[in-house]
Structure formats: structure tokens, C-alpha cells
Amino acid sequence: MVDSILVADDESNLRKVLGALLRRRGYQVVTAADGAEALEILAEENFSAVITDLRMPNVDGMALLRHVTEHQPDLPVIIITAHGTVDTAVEALKAGAFDFVTKPFDQAELTKVVEKAVATFRLNRHETHPHAVDAATGRFGLIGTSPVMQRVFDIVDKVACTPSTVLITGESGTGKELIAKALHEHSPRVDKPFIKVNCAAIPATLIESELFGYEKGAFTGAVTSKPGRFELADGGTLFLDEIGEVSTEMQVKLLRAIQESEFERVGGVNTRRVDVRLVTATNRDLAAEMAAGAFRDDLYYRLNVVPIKLPPLRERAGDIPLLVTHMLEKYNARLARRVERVDDAAMQVLLRYGWPGNIRELENVIERTLLFCEGTFVGEADLPPELSCEVPGGGATRVPVPPVGVTGLKDAVKLTTQRLEREMIERALSDTGGNVTRAARRLEISRKSLQTKMKELGLRDE
Ligand SMILES: Nc1ncnc2c1ncn2[C@@H]1O[C@H](COP(=O)(O)OP(=O)(O)OP(=O)(O)O)[C@@H](O)[C@H]1O
Ligand SMILES: [Mg+2]
Question: Which of 124, 127, 197 to mutate to test the pocket of ligand 1 (most atoms within 8 A of CB)?
Fold first, then answer.
């Protein structure tokens, strides 16, 4: 699918130049001459990113930005700003803009920012803003009455109002980002920015300037000074997602920033101090990575002050009916359907399935099912057939192809790999009567990596 970019600027020349540049890079471009026109177009078409000028007649760039952050929080907005108005651009970043570029802009810089925005959009496409979850349904707007989730909520309750660093772990799609946002929204910092950085989406070479900012002239293309995410989050919360992806070199710099609360911008000499509450998340087993020497132990202990471990959905299947009800409501409204319930047989299938993609996968399944469901209830035949292929106990009997357009390629590969790993490991364990050493030999991996994998996949070491 070609990514579409909306460009809003009142200067027709700039629209032409930007349009030509982006089209050359393979994007589809739609232009708007002011904010009001941009809003109309946004209501009708889907985009992967918005580029907007700040000063425009009718609806200005800030208002456009506010509209997008409220209605399409995953859609990245890039601000174009004239030299000398960087302060306003920084305000825009705090209000949720993805990034800004200064006029006259450097083509390479602009292209890089757009690529980064589109990559982030793709990563986030299936994540919903916490406000989309009906606050009445559960604590912190999160759903879950299972004892394990209640324990998670208790921890959030206790630590939200403290400045302590929190490390959230859990498989993909278990709600790590929702918890990070809940921590911010229930803290005294709620009126200050919540800044998210997806460490996996930023190339290793750019992460330092992204986090700590840079001074004018620090490298080619640094035509102006720019604050990093640490500075933007001052007074608020900085959420470093996928922290396990950070290089060892960057881990050293992060450690200092956390330990001393100070850092320098790239190419800068002034030491800057900020007050940020740090929340990090990963779906990797950082303790195992630390043991293997891939993650610094001093940083690990700094990050792991308050650990929050999110259980995989298969370990709290009791929450499935509640989640399904919530998702039926959400997608009935969104897709104009009137599906009232999931019948007993279909619910049995949902309860038996292993959900390697956790709540995100459940949500995708409900959305897809509603798309094709004509009646007022979901029966077993309405569900994707691969859900029923699974034998009780969670072992898939074949690897299904995830639906294109619902699951991104990266997620699909991750899910499929996890599924495959789970199936092979379960087979090896059952063939060897649960003997981990022998199962590891059959799988041609070390006993230790098998144990790590089993932990990741929630398989018990009997
Ligand atoms: N307890 C919950 N109640 C309602 N919805 C939830 C809950 N947990 C997760 N979700 C939904 O599931 C999806 C995945 O959640 P989230 O993005 O927070 O997961 P994640 O752990 O950060 O995943 P990843 O590791 O892939 O980034 C989102 O659409 C979110 O709204
Ligand atoms: Mg996440």
C-alpha cells in the first residue's frame, strides 16, 4: 500500500516543491491551502502522516495539530516552521507533534523525518489511545478482572504518584503502552508532556540526537538547534518503548542521563538538567540479556526500580469475555454493525485459543469478524478458521497466514515465529516427557535458551 501524506500550507510554491519531492520518494500527496481544507480532507481520506505549516489562514497549524492528536492520535504531524519561530515549534512538539523542520528546509532532513513518521505510524497503527477505552469498564481505563491484572492495577495505583522509574515487561500486545500512559495520567505530572520514544523505530545512528537533541552544525543537516525528547519531557513522563533494542554504546549515555539527570545535546557543551519520570518497556527478557552480556547490568537495575510484568492473555483467559464485550461495542460503533454477542460455541473457541499476539490479536480478530458478520451474533463459523485449528492446551496445528491490511508484516513475522517456536517446543517437550535437557538437544539449542524461550512463551518448566 502506498503511504499518503497530507501537506497543508498556504504558500502554493511550497506545496508544489514538497509535493514533487515526496512523490519522487514514492509517496502519494494530497495538498490543502489552509487548515480548514486540511480538516475536510482528513475526514474523508486516510493518511500515514501530515505535514503542516503553523501560520495559515482560517484554521492554523496548532489547531490542526490539536484536532489530529484528539481524533487520530496515531497519525504523526510534522510541523514546518520559519527560522526564528523554533519556540512555537517546540510548543507544538509538547502538544504532540511528531517533529518539526525549519524553512527553508533541507530535502534530506525532511525526507528522513517523513520516513521516520511513516515508520512510526505503521508500528502504531493497531494501537488505540487509552481514551478509546471506556473508563467505566475498568481501573485506569484498562480491562481486566483477573487476579493477575488486579495485582498490576494495584501496583499502578501505588506508584503512579511517585517519581520512581518503572520497567514494564510482557509479550507483544499485552498492554504495555496503555500501562505507561495510565502511570502518566494518574500522576501529578498529568498536565505536563507524555513523550513516547519507540527505540526500535529509530536507527542506532539517530537515537542519541533524538533523545538528547543537538546543536546547530553538530552534523550535516543540523541547520538549527533542536531539543531532544528528554528536554521535551521536562516535568512530565518519558516513555522509552522497546528499550531492549538500544545499543550498548547508547546504554552508557542513557545510564548517565538517568543517574545524574543531566546530559549534553549532540555537538553541545552546556550540560542540561531535566526532571523526567522515566517509564520503559520491553517484550524481551532483559534479565536474560543482561546475563548474556547484551544489556548493561547497571542500567538494568536503574530501570527496574519498579517492575510491572503484564501476563499474556492465555494466562488470564477469564478476562476474554469482558474484553470481547468491550471490543464488540467499539467495532459496532466504528463499522456501523449491530452484533450483540458472541454465542457460546464461538466463545469456547476464543477461550481455548492461545493468543500469541495477546490483546492486540484478539482485537484484530473481533474487528475482522465484525467486518464480515451479517447477523446479530457471532457464531463459531464467523470466526477465522485458524482459531479452531488449535487443540485444547494452546498448540497450533498449522501456521495461519495473518490477514494483510489488519496485521503489519513485522508483527505478522513476529507472531508467526512465536507460534512456530511454541509448537516445536511443545512437541519436543511432549516427545521427551517434559525433559528440558533432552528437548533442548532435539531442538538444537542450549538448555538455557530453551528455558528462556519457555519463559517468554509462558510454558511451564515442569
Ligand atoms: N487491559 C486492556 N484493556 C483494553 N484494551 C487493552 C488492554 N490491554 C491492551 N489493550 C489493547 O491492546 C492493544 C495492544 O496494547 P499495547 O499497545 O499497550 O500493547 P504493547 O504491550 O505495548 O504491545 P507491543 O509490545 O506490541 O508494543 C491496544 O489496542 C490496546 O488498546
Ligand atoms: Mg508497545
Answer: 127
Residue whose CB lies within 8 A of the most ligand 1 atoms, among 177, 324, 365, for a mutation test: 177
Q: Which residue has the higher pLDDT, 414 or 23?
A: 23
What separation in Å is there between the alpha carbon of 415 and the centre of ligand 1?
15
Full-model pTM? 0.65
DSSP state of 314: G
Q: pLDDT tens-digit profile of 176-197?
A: 999 999 999 999 999 999 999 9
262-320 pLDDT tens trace: 999 999 999 999 999 999 999 999 999 999 899 999 999 999 999 999 999 998 888 99
What is the position in ligand 1's atom list of the atom closest to the CA of 149?
Answer: 1
As a whole number of angstroms, the distance between CA 344 and CA 350 comes to: 10
| CB 96 less than 6 A from any atom of ligand 1 | no
Does ligand 1 come within 6 angstroms of the Cβ of 369?
Answer: no
356 lines ligand 1 (CB under 6 A): no
CA 22–ligand 2 middle distance (angstroms): 29
Instruction: Say how far residue 220 (Cα) sits from the centre of its chain.
Output: 30
Contact 55, 76 (CB under 8 A): no
Mean pLDDT, the chain, rounded, equals 87
**Residue 177, ligand 1, Cβ within 6 A:** yes
Domains detected in the chain: 4-124 (3.40.50.2300), 132-309 (3.40.50.300), 314-350+361-391 (1.10.8.60)
Please count the CA atoms within 13 angstroms of the CA of 331 that sit on its side-chain side. Answer: 21
Judged by its nearest atom, the ligand closest to the C-alpha of residue 152 is 1
Whether 359 is in the pocket of ligand 1, judged by its Cβ within 6 Å, is yes
Residue 313: alpha-carbon gap to chain centroid: 18
CA nearest to 96, candidates 52, 36, 35: 52
DSSP string, 177-231: HHHHHHHHHTSTTTTS-EEEEETTTS-TTTHHHHHHEE-TTSSTT--S-EE-HHH
